[in-house]
Amino acid sequence: MNAAKTVTVPPAAIPPLRLALVFAVLFIAYQLPEGLGLRLLHSAPVNAALMLAFFPVAWLCGRALGFRGFDAWYMGLRPGWVGLLAATFALACAAKAVALGLGSGLGIYRVASSGLGAEQVLMAALMMLPYTFIPSVAEDIVTRGFLLRAFPRLGQRWLFVLASSALYVANHIYRYADGPLELARLFAFGLAYGAGIYYSRSLWAAIGLHWGWNFAGQFSDSVISNDLIAPTQGPLVSIAAHLLMLGVVVLVARARRA
């Protein structure tokens, strides 16, 4: 992965209290769409409006830290960012295909054609692209872009990947009751996505992996018959797929450094 040039600020230049306030604002802005829009008001339009509202909030938070909006979250539009996003998106889609194939072979999933025509498949893809992109970016800003900006020294060590994975799990406040296996699945997701920004110094790598997985999951649910036969084993397949992504990210990064 090509490292993207980013604007950096010495750790002492951003007051800790300001960092804490910015994180609180980002965290609340991210949780509101599901908490208020879906769980309290049961309104998909409110959920969508609040999710879109996250982005001007994130831009203002970036400005509050002294950056040009989204540059604060390592989202600068530097040369190569589109290729980085596309490559990681493709990797995640491929990993989802592997997961479905592996799960089908092991009897965890029952996968069959839904019989949809090419036009219906295309329409489903066009609908799913923005639908999965927006929440993926929002969560990556909260759990990875902010962490790297707030603790740049941590970002120089692989410990950042573990810390961002833990924050990613903690950010799923509505999933705490789903059990340890689900939390382990989220942690594995965080490892792959955290490695993306760690090695590239660009949030676009994490976004591509996160968005690609979410898109492939939603898309496959829409265009094929995909029944989960063994619910307790399904998360294990997803964990394996993300560990595979993690391995690819590490290997590519090391090969580019050699």
From TrEMBL:
InterPro entries xrefs: Rce1/LyrA-like_dom
Keywords noted in UniProt: Hydrolase, Membrane, Metalloprotease, Protease, Transmembrane, Transmembrane helix
Every CAAX prenyl protease 2/Lysostaphin resistance protein A-like domain range: 124-215
Regions that span the bilayer: 12-32, 44-65, 85-109, 121-138, 186-213, 233-253
UniProt KW Transmembrane helix keyword: yes
Signal peptide stretch: none
Tagged with keyword Hydrolase: yes
GO molecular function: endopeptidase activity; metallopeptidase activity
Superkingdom field: Bacteria
GO BP of this protein: CAAX-box protein maturation; proteolysis
Name this polypeptide is given: CPBP family intramembrane metalloprotease
Organism: Massilia horti
